[in-house]
Fold this sequence. Notes:
Blueprint: H1 2-27, H2 34-58, H3 64-86, H4 91-115, H5 123-145, H6 153-178, H7 182-185, H8 190-214
Amino acid sequence: xxxxxxxxxxxxxxxxxxxxxxxxxxxxxxxxxxxxxxxxxxxxxxxxxxxxxxxxxxxxxxxxxxxxxxxxxxxxxxxxxxxxxxxxxxxxxxxxxxxxxxxxxxxxxxxxxxxxxxxxxxxxxxxxxxxxxxxxxxxxxxxxxxxxxxxxxxxxxxxxxxxxxxxxxxxxxxxxxxxxxxxxxxxxxxxxxxxxxxxxxxxxxxxxxxxxxxxxxxxxxxx
Length: 223
């Protein structure tokens, strides 16, 4: 029970970080930029899903349907962010990534309706999207290593966000993969793995907050 309280406390702290980060995005005018706009939607999604999920959990109701919705929207938002972020390094990515995003989104929906229904944990879709997020992140770092010119202040923030994505989704993939191992998943110590996941989530949100806080004021309406 004490561990559950700890996890909930960490989740509430994470939500507070989301709210503060959203306030900073608006106060700096960053919400007018297409890159930061994706981060804004990502943070809003966290709040929109985690709050009702916590309420349902306290009422001892199944909140798995929210996870199905979250995985789909999370994929679309982060993939759109990386669509913009990676396109300067590979022009074809901007042209064809929209079809890739559409294809994976369809697979996620098919998984929810035909393979792992809304009342169960959509581990297949979650594992797939985590792997894709890690691939985006590694690709971005790879392209950065090939650059000769200096980064602008906004790009410095994106590097920090990319590091947050790489760290959190690596940890999240570890948590969900261990959950598929029966011996570990049925162990009383498995709940501590979820504590680790909550700490990883807090770390990611702290990095996003720092990136937003350090980003210069956005003065132009052009992206």
